[in-house]
Design brief:
Bound molecules: adenosine-5'-diphosphate, magnesium ion
Strand content of chain B: 25-35%
Number of domains of chain B: 2
Structural class of chain A: mainly alpha
Strand order of the largest sheet of chain A: 1-2
Strand order of the largest sheet of chain B: 1-2-4-3-5-6
Shape of chain A: globular
Oligomer: heterotetramer
Helix content of chain B: 25-40%
Shape of chain B: globular
Number of domains of chain A: 1
Number of strands of chain B: 16
Structural class of chain B: alpha/beta
Largest interface: B-C, 56 and 56 residues
Radius of gyration of chain A: 16 Å
CATH superfamily of chain A: DhaL domain
CATH architecture of the largest domain in chain B: 3-Layer(aba) Sandwich
CATH superfamily of the largest domain in chain B: Dihydroxyacetone kinase, domain 1
Helix content of chain A: 55-70%
CATH class of chain A: Mainly Alpha
CATH class of the largest domain in chain B: Alpha Beta
Distance between the termini of chain A: 12 Å
Order of helices and strands of chain B: HEEEEHEHEHHEEEHEEEHEEHEE
């Protein structure tokens, strides 16, 4: 079963819901090593995505994702706004004109999104950022697909890897973003951006399961 | 949380409404996207200066919009950087054709949002340069972090570059001057109390009745160290010496190259202070510290500068770059040359800085 | 007690030392007795304006010494009125022969100390008039009390009368103008937190996390009522309506009669505000309340004035008459005529108020 | 035994001591209905009196008292500075040229002092001020002397009356000074200025006893 435009819209709605639920949790994480707004930022951004969505729902997936990216850019602010905004905009470019996505298409789109994050934020793996959740997730998905897994399986693998990557940020010293000012004092705290990235991946896997059932 | 506000989510909007009503002859305010701009913008033939950042640092930046300083300011949510559409729309409004300088404090969020805005403005045919302000000596190394934060020097750069633009400097010259101000300015701050972000509703950090935080940022970021409260003289000495004895600081920042028309990595080094230097001394309240205490700090700072062979040729004392109602102080020293002194003295007419007119 | 000070007993001395170092081109500071005076005093042919009061209200009064405003300011200990020898010495220093106006806030201590100072100055051949500022509508009746306190209108009177003296008004004219400003100005303040007098070391009063005090004075005097915290709009409305709906207020004050050369009791009545009035709106921080909140207050104040038919023709927004680090706000409305507007706009060059030059 | 110049100097030293001891008590009283500085003000003032005293100790009583008054005026500030300052200066005028005082002279001096307070502050009896302690004290002293009492006895009567007057300020509504802003809220608190006045009178009585012994 390919991914359809309405799946993508539904995904964005689900993400908005998940982030609203996790607003305080993400903010709590950010208050330890940042400025206590990551949950607030992400929630504000996806509420804006919800507002822009109806106007493009009948368009192609590329347009929907680009619109989401622009909605994020123009409402999140902070570090995560340009990062997630660029990610969705690059994803939209990779999906330009498409109305259906196969598993491989989704992988390519996620790779484009990650490239966008890296281009914008220039973080390296291990810098204690969202990259530490996104990179292993996409690697795991690629490997699973190469080994013949189906979309649901591949996204399960990605989710597990994202979760592991997210947890692995705990002992790291932050080298990018606001948390880097803390130096050693950033050790022992989970990165909020890696956590929101994990939630974004996990929501994909959950949707795949729901669709299969 | 004790604040004179209505709903936390309306703070920035209502603040801007108040400003618009208070200073109609100086500024106008555009809503959605939010930006404050000179009432007489665009000013023919003049390079336009735009800055911005999270709200909660008033009067910076909105209070510095006007003749001789900024052409526009883009306020984000409290302590959250603004979004590129704000800077883009502001640029379109104030651009007279002579180009735009974005003055950007070095926070990952601000830097990235301004970069996107610059790219977007260029896509619309507007010439844009960007200069990063990173003057906070509380952040030690730059190799493995996002680098030093932009704090007090920002205010001084906006004044000096604003005067230069008014005098007819072109975009490249204003950008160069801004870079010069930045590498010659250094700051360090401390807090006696935390501030409370309205949306959060509780203090960002807790300090005991006998504690203070040294090396604080302007967003309630934890500082370099927490220690027992000391006297004003001791605190002034700690801050001033961190600044004066700071060694050459080298970092790489991303700037737009106006000739090559591409983003380039530029390495820059701050020259350390030396005996014989002329400086501007800026003693800044974090918001909740009253003027009477700032004068006590200034008194000691003057003495220390004298002892170190630094001559204070200009000063600025008051709440200019704040953290909501936080009690505390920051000190900025800016090494001045004749050009900078002359531009500092040039007329300025904004809601919160005004002289010579 | 969290303050950026050294020893509590040195606060005023060190503050004055800091001011002297900060503004040598504008002011000079004399120690023992303490007073701040214009660097170019005495100004030939000009009536000299002197004010003073307890310290802790910075920038008032010392920050208002300079061209177009005060000739001298006499700071007492924190929240304690200065002593007559300060006013006497200040008068001798700034007197150019055109006479002296003492602008006195209506507190028993200030009034009596200034009266003694006036008598002493006259004994030395200096012509002195005195005008009492009593604009705080939080104090209800005057028959059985020391009368209304002098608060926000003081700042406005100093600016307006300073401009008049600069323009060549003689002593009688400046005194008359000052009286006019006083009876046309009304103020009301509130506090979110108490302040701490350095010598006392602990807050003057306690307010619970959800309480505020309405009708507060500028010395941490308890207010008219204590109540649950409200929104900025509700608070603004309470303060503004207390002022706008205040009825004609009559009291008797003791003034020196320049012609009869004796102390006389003068009865004066404040005219109530009426639709159609032009006003200056002054939103003042008590010290710890940041600018962002003042704009939220101003926004609502503007709306209320509009609804009541009052046109705001000028405004002043910021910390000008404070209570150390107290969080809170006061509102002053001053009914303006053309003369007052023109004098308000006239050039002023002091440490804390500066425009037109 | 008449009162000598050195008695007057000693009296001023004793008062300085008593006020230093009662500094916090007086400030405490002032914090309830004023601005928490009366003890600090009085202590600062009499410390200044101590500094000025040596230079005039060999002068006449009038000069000593006037010097004390001027020392108070130039160091106390607030309401109590001009009030007590005027009181001592007026007392000094009444004692001009004298090197010894009989009981009647002291009464005349105290009457002059009170007149100074009334002229300066224009308070009425019952306004909850220092006048409420001073007036009954002087009345009692006058009456005692008229009835043939000696100085010690007369000052004991004055002290008792001052104490009573001081306590009688508790239920009053303040009508003068800073406390008057409180209106009804000033009820139930003892006036700080009445209290310092009581201490000044009591110290006289104590000295008279000591001298007699
Ligand atoms: N240079 C970067 N590259 C990738 N991710 C980054 C970078 N800088 C910060 N981040 C991510 O952004 C998150 C913080 O986002 P947020 O709190 O919304 O922004 P801000 O730090 O401006 O308040 C961090 O937890 C981190 O994962
Ligand atoms: N008009 C007045 N006449 C007589 N005594 C007064 C008058 N006003 C105030 N006082 C006295 O002054 C005392 C307060 O003195 P103090 O606290 O030193 O001055 P301030 O009120 O200026 O802080 C009051 O307790 C009262 O007894
Ligand atoms: Mg954050
Ligand atoms: Mg943020
Ligand atoms: Mg007092
Ligand atoms: Mg008092």
């Amino acid at each position: 079963m390919p991914i359809t435009t309405s799946d993508v819209s539904e995904y964005l709605r689900k993400v908005a819901e998940v982030l609203a639920e996790n607003k305080e949790y993400l903010t709590e994480l950010d208050s330890a090593i940042g400025d206590a707004d990551h949950g607030i930022n992400m929630d504000r951004g996806f509420q804006n995505v919800l507002r822009k969505l109806p106007a493009v729902e009948d368009k192609d997936i590329g347009t929907i994702l680009k619109t989401a990216g622009m909605a994020l850019v123009s409402s999140v602010g902070g570090a995560s706004g340009p990062l997630y905004g660029t990610a969705f905009m690059q994803a939209g470019m990779a999906a330009a004109g498409k109305r259906e996505l196969a598993a491989e298409d989704l992988l390519a789109i996620l790779e484009a999104a990650l490239k966008g994050v890296l281009m914008r934020g220039r973080a390296n793996l291990g810098d204690k950022t969202m990259v530490d959740a996104l990179t292993p997730a996409i690697d795991a998905m690629r490997e699973a697909l190469e080994n013949g897994a189906d979309l649901t399986e591949a996204l399960d693998k990605a989710t597990a890897a994202a979760e592991e990557g997210m947890k692995a940020t705990i002992p790291l010293i932050a080298k990018k973003g606001r948390a880097s000012y803390l130096g050693e004092r950033s050790i022992g705290h989970q990165d909020p951006g890696a956590t929101s990235s994990y939630l974004l991946i996990r929501t994909m896997a959950e949707m795949a399961h729901a669709k299969q059932a | 949380m004790k604040k004179l506000i209505n709903k936390p989510e309306d703070v920035v909007k209502e603040e801007l409404e108040g400003m618009a009503l208070a200073f109609p002859e100086l500024i106008k305010v555009h809503f959605e996207p939010n930006y404050i701009y000179r009432a007489d913008a665009p000013v023919k033939g003049k390079v336009a200066l735009i800055s911005g950042g999270g709200s909660g640092h008033e009067p910076m930046h909105g209070g510095f919009v006007g003749m001789g300083m900024l052409d526009a300011a883009c306020p984000g949510e409290v302590f959250t950087s603004p979004t590129p559409d704000q800077m883009l729309e502001a640029a379109k409004t104030v651009n007279s054709g002579a180009g735009i300088l974005y003055i950007v404090k070095n926070y990952t969020g601000d830097v990235m949002n301004f970069e996107m805005a610059a790219d977007m403005a260029r896509a619309e045919g507007i010439q844009v340069a960007n200069i990063i302000i990173d003057d906070d000596v509380a952040v030690k190394d730059s190799l493995y972090t996002a680098g030093r934060r932009g704090v007090g020097t920002t205010v001084l750069a906006e004044k000096i570059c604003g005067a230069a633009a008014e005098k007819g400097y072109d975009l490249k010259q204003v950008a160069e001057l801004c870079r010069k101000v930045n590498i010659n300015g250094r700051s360090m701050g401390m807090a006696l109390t935390s501030c409370t972000v309205p949306a959060a509703g509780k203090p960002t950090f807790d300090l005991a009745e006998d504690e203070m935080e040294i090396g604080i940022g302007i967003h309630g970021e934890p500082g370099r160290t927490r220690m027992k409260l000391k006297s004003a003289d001791e605190i002034t000495e700690m801050l001033a010496l961190s600044i004066i004895e700071d060694e050459a600081y080298t970092r790489t920042v991303r700037e737009w190259d106006l000739e090559r028309e591409e983003w380039v990595d530029v390495e820059m080094t701050d020259p350390p202070f030396e005996a014989g230097d002329k400086v501007l001394a800026f003693v800044n309240s974090m918001g909740g510290t009253p003027l009477i205490e700032l004068f006590i700090i200034y008194r000691k700072l003057y003495e220390i500068c004298e002892k170190k062979g630094l001559t204070i040729v200009r000063n600025l004392i008051g709440p200019y770059i704040t953290s909501l109602e936080m009690q505390g102080v920051s000190i900025t020293l800016l090494k001045m040359d004749e050009e900078m002194v002359e531009l500092w003295d040039a007329p300025v007419k904004t809601p919160s800085m005004r002289w010579g007119v």
